[in-house]
Write a structure and sequence with these properties.
0% strand; 71 residues; globular; mainly alpha
Length: 71
């Protein structure tokens, strides 16, 4: 069980670090996180305000959560 938990923790850390890196890059270039990294659609300002550093639009986030539910 510890191996599974360790792996899950490592994946979470990796994803968090990647998200922070992407956010910093977007902020430093002045583009902000305005578009979904999956489909390219604009992420509404309200979502960006409520979920800082979001990378996906609501539809893509929902789909990702459905796909990852079994993980």
């Amino acid at each position: 069980m510890a191996d599974f938990a360790d792996r899950a923790s490592a994946i979470e850390t990796e994803h968090t670090a990647r998200g922070i890196e992407m956010a910093r890059a977007a902020i430093s270039t002045g583009t902000g996180l305005t578009h979904c990294e999956n489909c390219g659609e604009e992420i509404p300002e309200r979502r960006r305000m409520c979920v800082p550093c979001c990378r996906l639009c609501v539809d893509c986030q929902t789909q990702a959560e459905i796909e990852n539910k079994g993980v």
